[in-house]
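Checked the freezer inventory, then went back to the computational side. Two predictions to log before the end of the day. The first one is the construct we discussed on Monday; recording sequence and tokens without edits.
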Amino acid sequence: MDIESILGPRVAIRGVCRFTTERAQRGFRLNTFLTSMRQPQQREAFARDPEACMANHGLTAQEQDMVRRRDYPAMLDYGASNVALGKAGPALGVSLLERGAQGKGQTSQEFVAERRAANQGQAWQF
């Protein structure tokens, strides 16, 4: 069966990709690493020696490079889930707001201004 018939037509939206079974399988190791950052000892190990921590999780050279560069769009395209990236946010030193801005190619300030304008006067607090 054609994936388009199941998920609908492809839409080109910057920073958005379908979480297909292929991506899920490819990203399993990366997602396991990212979600492990929920545990204090994993965050400490990563802060102490990121290279050793990534190697201990068996990340490939490509996966390690994406983590080093904090290339969230590339990680999502590779197979990382937004949930896993959210769990790793504090360890990687980035907030959801900052990831949203990066995904849109904006600064955090530009992203906040755009979101406030789009919210049409509704309260939007940080």
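The second is the one RB wanted added to the comparison set:
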Amino acid sequence: MTEHSKPPRAVLAPFMMGHHFGVPFHNGLQRRIILKALGRLERAERSGDIYDLPITWAQARREGIAIERSLGLRH
């Protein structure tokens, strides 16, 4: 869909719909996504540049569960 709409540049997070910045409480991942997106704005080599973040939803969710446990939000 992103390739078809041809934005000037894009960063794709392979997460479930509605979870554009990963999982709740995962501040480190959220920060990485924002910084990567801002960096791509500066460094996109050509119009239509699309960058896929090197993380999966499963990995982000596992990390999120560990964070929730450390915060006492999950058993």
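For RB: The longest strand covers residues 9-12. Residues 2-70 form one domain. Let me know if you want it refolded.
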